[in-house]
Write the structure tokens for this entry.
Amino acid sequence: MKFPLLKIRSRQFIELIEEAQFTHGSGESLSPEEGMEEAFRLLGKARDGRRSVYVIGNGGSSAIASHAITDFTNVAGIRAKTLHESSLMTCMANDYGYENGFARILGTHALEGDLLIAISSSGRSKNILNAVGAMKEAGGLVFTLSGFSRDNALRKTGDLNLWLDSHDYGLVEIAHLFILHNLADRFGALKQESLENNAKR
């Protein structure tokens, strides 16, 4: 049995990141760095306006959401939250169906100007797609992260959309985490620069 060699996998990961495809809701394409700058702008707008940022996903993407809100809160000072608290989610799934769980919670909590970061490797998860609809209905903004099929449904729904050209769960999930971590790191770099400038005064 041939195992995937680390050297080969690391090269594949780098290529996937460098070739990340960002699009506006209008379908306009952005370069990877332009896309990151736009995502940073959306997060900064939410932070400065004291709006909430909700990050959601299923399975491994749910773990990525938890990691992301930790860094957004701690490093960036963003009011970031996940929605998969077990008692609440099982209640919503039991009463309204799992596909409506996130949407029901957002229907109660989301306010105009809030931001939803919706993560789905396949871009086909119904509960994620329904959550996007609920956030839009609330007057919020949406940043989607997906992979797999080029024409997946989630990729067409956000104000900003990231798509990774791979069907490899491991690469797509870790790339999503890397990108979200990089966004938090950008806030951290700004904070450090501000501290250094203040120290020089």
